[in-house]
Automatic annotation (TrEMBL):
Pfam families: OsmC (PF02566). This is OsmC-like protein. It comes from the Bacteria. It comes from Parendozoicomonas haliclonae. Gene3D superfamilies: 2.20.25.10, 3.30.300.20. The lineage of its organism: Bacteria, Pseudomonadati, Pseudomonadota, Gammaproteobacteria, Oceanospirillales.
């Protein structure tokens, strides 16, 4: 896997993946940014949410669950030192659908956490405490 990050101006950077997708990154005004795009640390948090969500939806679809929506709310804490790495990340899944079986939703969230989500597993190995929970909403 390859990617490129190019300085644009100020503290803004353009990232481009090998697959041709681009994203802007910026930083807080406190360190010279304009907050016009997600910061690199926000991108890491979003990556954890995206990676886990892909797993949960994939597992639920394979279990033939009628999922209408899936949202994961993430909350992270960072250490009060430099580097200000994440110390904790909590993922709260809200899965909406018809006749969803709790055992399937629970299993999907656990499998993502324990086996499939490369982003969260990598951060967990680096010492970040990562927790998950879920709620089911029927339509």
């Amino acid at each position: 896997m390859k990617a490129q990050v190019k300085w644009v101006d100020g503290m803004r950077f353009a990232g481009r993946s090998a697959s041709g997708h681009s994203i802007m990154m910026d930083t807080t005004a406190k360190i010279g940014g304009t907050e016009s795009a997600p910061s690199p640390m926000e991108m890491i948090l979003l990556a954890v949410g995206g990676c886990s969500s892909v797993d949960v939806i994939s597992i639920l679809k394979k279990a033939r669950q009628d999922v209408i929506d899936c949202v994961v709310d993430l909350e992270a804490e960072r250490v009060d030192a430099v580097p200000a790495v994440f110390s904790k990340i909590h993922l709260h899944f809200v899965v909406t659908g018809r006749d969803l079986k709790e055992t399937h939703v629970k299993r999907a969230v656990e499998m993502s956490a324990d086996k499939y989500c490369s982003a969260s597993i990598m951060l967990g190995k680096a010492g970040v405490e990562i927790t998950h929970d879920y709620e089911i909403r029927e339509v």
